[in-house]
Amino acid sequence: MDSPRQQQLALSASPGSGLAVARKPGWRKYISWGISGLVIWWLLYRSLALFAAWFTYTLLPLTHGSHLGAAVEFFVFESPKVLMLLTLVVFGVGIIRSFFTPERTRRILAGKSESVGNVLAALLGIATPFCSCSAVPLFIGFVTTGVPLGVTFSFLVSAPMVNEVALVLLFGLFGWNVAGIYLGTGVAIAIVSGWIIGRLRLERYVEDWVFQVQTGDLAPEAAPDWPARIRLGLDAVKDIVGHVWLYVLLGIAVGAGIHGYVPENFMAAIMGKGAWWSVPLAVLIGVPMYSNAAGIIPIVQALLGKGAALGTVLAFMMAVIGLSLPEAIILRKVLKPRLLAVFFGIVAAGIMVVGYLFNLIM
Questions:
Q1: Residue 125 C-alpha from the chain's centroid
Q2: Looking at residue 56, what is its pLDDT?
Q3: Are 362 and 311 within 8 A, CB to CB?
Q4: How far is the CA of 85 from the CAs of 48, 62, 82, 193, in angstroms?
Q5: Which residue has the higher pLDDT, 126 or 46?
Q6: What is the pLDDT of residue 92?
Q7: What dihedral angle (degrees, nearest 10) is formed by the CA atoms of 5, 9, 11, 15?
Q8: Which of 59, 224, 307, 323 could form a disulfide with 264 if both were Cys (CB 3.0 to 4.6 A apart)?
Q9: Contact, 129 vs 91, CB < 8 A?
Q10: pLDDT tier for residue 332 given thresholds of 50, 70 and 90
Q11: Per-domain residue ranges for the chain?
């Protein structure tokens, strides 16, 4: 005969018992907290414009129409706006990324045909965790598990360039048309760049030691439950927002200076549609200006507001995000100089084509 303790454990484990229901996660609590948080976030977000105007022209007070007033109002309005959008986006992306680990991505891409692999790699690059410091281990893992070189480069282009934070911030600040242009052109550049590199058969320009690395079989991964995914989202906010907030504010400060003090005709002359050299110049300027996506978006917003052409600004943003100098230095560990130059040259050419195209049609 079972003891009272054993009977209690059996009762709590039985599917129909009330104790079993009580032990299940409180989904109603998660849902209610989520809805309450979104409502509070939305109310605060909607009140930012009024707060910025009150702070600038009543609390300080500055003169309407002055350069300093315009710059301060831009900074006070955009700082909480971008940080609020960034926090919400990073939390959601942290949950999404729990479904797409680098190991799982390697398994998906390994063994695929090159044509299918280029498209799939470019799409997976949007959601997979990636930063410059992870370029080398990702590259080694892909190449040594049978992923073709061109497919690997489609992923390496897409992952930093089609940045999900930049995508949602662009949607929140400029609408679906600009965000859609950024998404479509970024994925197209990644697919075409990887396809071209694959056709050139440049495997001999990968450092010899890369092919000698043994990765072994990938162990099966245990899928996290939803409470764990929510914790991953919160951890992503703490890690990413905690590290980039200062760069975001610096970017907004630069944007505020452009917004308040730079004449519209000046930016239109330098980065407008009429200057044929504006697109390559924007790419050349953007490469050494390493910045995170959240920090560059306010500068993009200010440039567009001052008359810069959409294609030129888009080329500048893609160069900053997708062709960073630190990434080139890190990738040099696994790529010989010729392949590294081909990689950067093809991506830069694709970015310039996008810039000229959208200056022509927009």
A1: 10
A2: 93
A3: yes
A4: 12, 27, 5, 31
A5: 46
A6: 80
A7: 180
A8: 307
A9: no
A10: confident
A11: 29-97+224-261, 113-222+264-361
Tokens of 185: 């052109």
116 vs 20: which has the higher pLDDT: 116
> Look-up: residue for tokens 């999404």?
96
Return the structure tokens found at 305: 């507001």
Distance in Å from the first CA to the final CA of the chain: 81
Structure tokens at 334: 């696994």
